[in-house]
Amino acid sequence: MRNHKAAILATVCAAVLAINLDTTIVNVALPSMSRELSAGTRQLQWVVDGYNLAFAGLVLAAGSLSDRFGRRPALIVGLVGFALASTAGALVHSADALVVARFAMGTCAALIFPTTLSIISNTFRERRERAAALGIWGAVVGLGVATGPITGGVLLEHFYWGSVFWALVPLALLTAVAAFLFVPESRDPSVPGLDRVGLVLSVAMLATLTYTIIEAPSHGWSSVATIGGFVAAAALLTTFVLWERRTTHPMLDVTLFKDRRFSAASGAVTVTFFALFGFIFLVTQYFQFVRGYGTLSTGARILPVALSIAVASVVGAALAPRIGTKIVVTTGMVLFGAAFLWISTASVTTSYAHEVVPQMVLMGLGMGLISTPATESILLVLPPARAGVGSAVNDATRELGGTLGVAVVGSVFSSVFGAHLASGSYAALPGDLLGRAQGSVGIAQAAAVQDPRLVTAFQDSFLAGMSTACTVVGVLCLAGAVGAAFLLPGRIRAQVEIEDEPVATPAAA
To answer: How far apart are the first and last CA of the chain?
Structure first.
């Protein structure tokens, strides 16, 4: 039985490794895509966020469907579809076509991810055993996200940019075979049908919000288009909540957020992935465009984040039942925020060994302490039979955070970067070239390469944008720490152990 459980855990971990690699493996290829596909900053944001947006928008519906019709078939179909979409992404020849392929990959990932936590919840019923499995799962999730750049760097050192998608195909197909062989079927036939209205409203809200943020630097943050977009997103969100409260079978039971374990933990996960995805979007370009590192060197330099996330995920899973989720998650949020405020001081000459590595370790430790305990707090609210819904909410918060992280961080950076270019040496460039340089870091760097007088202006503009974006994220994380300290519950071991115990018979009572 123990070997069977190990095989199940290995299979679901391989599945989350594939789809979490895909969330960040593309980042190290962004400079190559900028040059070879003539992609601007906004297109690069959509290459990253096309995946995240489809993932976040559909994961709740996918979790409900997998609960109702079967987790193993959902996992297998999702993995095969993911392999096909990755193949398509590797074969396209334009940025717009790649964005479409990324939406397809995100759709398949939405089908895969909630099944993994559902399978863990239904396989590992005893709390300590489940906490250990979640710790391993969390470590693999973190490793997948954080080692994406190094994996991409190795591939791009020898192959073209499409290789970052080809590499995911065999992993997805082999995992699909393992799921067929090892994962038992589980489902909850009592789960109601799909809430189509809720699905449409949620996807429309997320798409409107993401589009508005990404396009804001082009339209202007105070423009009618941007303000109208935010108002439309708020109206859609309000309508979604009202619909979910009145419909008989909601896609998302919004009353769950009355439980502090659920709402505060969901908020912590959202902020964490907001910060992480925004950081990786910027740091891969910082290393390549400003520091001049190659793709492999860039990926290798992000390894400290991956290793510290892996360690802290296991430690966080072990500490939460003993000292309480509140203390562990709050500590993680403080470490995360401090790391970003430190990163905001980076310069062209910042020492990698003495400053960048400690910054990344601090960030990785913070994320590891947040992710696994917060995930367990979310899952504890629902019984194993409804684990797909709880895990889907957890996944949605991750992808929502990641989507908004790339959108907000990228847009704040783009606004500051473009404004600095226009006020410096780049102002002497012809109007059309200046405009294109403001919208594309790749074009701005190419202009600096041709005219060495622009190098300092380019570096200063990039660092100004990165500093502002990291400061915003750091303050958000510290605000999240305050929220976690006030809202998360303390130790909940006793309650859960009672829930895990078999119900006593009248005679025993």
So the answer is: 31
Q: Which two tokens stand for residue 199?
A: 């699905």
Same domain, 212 and 256: no
Question: Which residue type is seen at 153?
Answer: G
Please tell me the distance from the alpha carbon of residue 334 to that of residue 231, in angstroms, as a whole number: 32
Total structural domains in the chain? 2
Residue with tokens 């193993």: 72
Please report, for the domain that includes residue 278, its CATH number.
1.20.1250.20
Round to whole Å and give the CA distance between 254 and 60.
12
DSSP letter for 349, please: T
How far is Cα of residue 392 from the mean position of the Cα atoms in its chain? 14
Q: What are the tens digits of pLDDT across the range 69-122?
A: 778 888 899 999 999 999 998 888 888 889 899 989 988 988 888 788 778 877
Residues 73 and 178 in one domain: yes
Q: Cα separation of 493 and 335, whole Å?
A: 25
Identify the CA nearest to 164 among candidates 305, 31, 306: 31
Residues 187 and 217 in one domain: no
* Nearest alpha carbon to residue 82 among 56, 111, 60, 61: 111
Q: What is the dihedral of CA 243, 248, 254, 258, to 10 degrees?
A: 130
Domain that holds residue 238: 195-250
Residues in the chain: 509
pTM of the model: 0.74
b or e along 411-432 (b: 16 or more beta carbons within 10 Å of the residue's beta carbon)? bbbbbbbbebbeeebbeebeee
| Whether residues 315 and 376 fall in one domain | yes
Q: Does residue 64 form part of some domain? A: yes
Q: How far apart are CA 448 and CA 437, in angstroms?
A: 10
